[in-house]
């Protein structure tokens, strides 16, 4: 009798997971995307993203703001502050409800601190930043996109991507590389006897 109860519990739990939005459930019709030659390794989320139904409204807002007159440019002497230098980027597209995305967050959180001011590392929630998600044609999460300082996409990876592989890509693309920071340093020995 216990086996039947256990089996029933597993079936109900599996059904509950599959009907929830986010990773592993509520899968929607796949988006027709351009084929690419991205690397894909590691765990991926079973969620397939679809275009936002409000994308035409967003395009109308962009068109409306584009038609408005631009403010007058102040003289060069008043514009003393220079535009900050663009950084190379590594943006991770994911979701808070996706288990592989949570693994990527654990990998990227310390890297964000280590690379602050050197590489723009961000975690972008695909459900909150739909415009950027569509702009980068994200279909599967997690997806990491490497972008040079000029805004050109250099590489993308789908799935969990370990820190050492990310650092290797930074080196390959000429991004600044931070030495250390990958493992905690041992505590200093205390003297005394």
Describe the structure.
The protein has 193 residues and is of the alpha/beta class. The chain has a domain at 39-51 and 85-173: Glutaredoxin, CATH 3.40.30. Helices cover 33% and strands 13% of the residues. It has 5 helices and 5 strands, in the order αβαβαβαββα. A 5-stranded mixed beta sheet has the order 1-5-4-2-3, covered by helices on one side. The protein is elongated, with a radius of gyration of 22 Å.
Number of helices: 5
Strand content: 5-15%
Strand order of the largest sheet: 1-5-4-2-3
* Distance from first to last alpha carbon: 64 Å
Second-tier CATH architecture of the domain at 39-51 and 85-173: 3-Layer(aba) Sandwich
Q: How does the major sheet shape up?
A: 5 strands, mixed
Mean pLDDT: 73
Tally of strands: 5
What is the CATH C-level name of the domain at 39-51 and 85-173?
Alpha Beta
- The low-confidence parts are 25-38, 53-68, 182-187
